[in-house]
Write a structure and sequence with these properties.
The chain is an alpha+beta fold and 151 residues long. It has one domain (3-147): Gcn5-related N-acetyltransferase (GNAT) (Aminopeptidase). Helix content is 34%, strand content 34%. It is built from 4 helices and 7 strands, in the order βααβββαβαββ. It has a 7-stranded mixed β-sheet, sandwiched between helices. Helix 1 (12-23) crosses helix 2. The chain is globular and about 40 Å long. The protein starts with a strand and ends in a 7-residue tail after the last strand.
Length: 151
């Protein structure tokens, strides 16, 4: 299958390019791309410990960014190379976090672009619901592990 390998400072350019691949399809004509790029660079530099590389054998096929914060799980990015999509990587990553959320009776938040219908569909199938808008083209979806096995 695949493995997660902690990202290092040497992976900065790869992570930066993956983050751009996530964002570019959903940018608008009037978006400040220089500001977006600057924010991505700062986020990676300040949070490198939250980034993981997704590897199959010795091939890097994507990245995953997750933080455990205030008792909850925050997924800030998932990117899988096109040739490796639809092979269950994202589903497997999310199911692992869902198991943790259920066990610890906590929540998972993730950000998704409103136009990313394929991702939204997957998240909904796994039990995530739309919470609220973050900015005009992003929403937060939440999985609530506190509701599991309540009587």
């Amino acid at each position: 299958m695949f493995e997660l390998v902690p990202a290092t400072k040497e992976d900065f350019n790869l992570l930066y390019n993956y983050e751009l691949q996530i964002i570019y399809p959903f940018t608008k004509e009037n978006d400040d791309l220089d500001l977006i790029k600057s924010n991505i660079k700062e986020t990676i530099q300040n949070n490198i410990r939250e980034y993981w590389l997704i590897k199959i054998t010795d091939i890097i096929v994507g990245m995953y960014s997750v933080a455990y914060h205030n008792g909850g799980i925050i997924i800030t990015g998932i990117y899988v190379e096109k040739d490796y999509r639809n092979n269950g990587i994202t589903t497997s990553l999310l199911k692992k976090e869902i198991d943790i959320a259920n066990k610890n009776k906590t929540y998972i938040d993730l950000w998704v672009f409103k136009g990313n219908k394929q991702a939204i569909s997957l998240y909904e199938k796994l039990g995530f619901t739309s919470s609220y808008n973050v900015i005009r083209n992003k929403i937060i979806m939440t999985y609530d592990g506190t509701k599991i096995n309540k009587k």
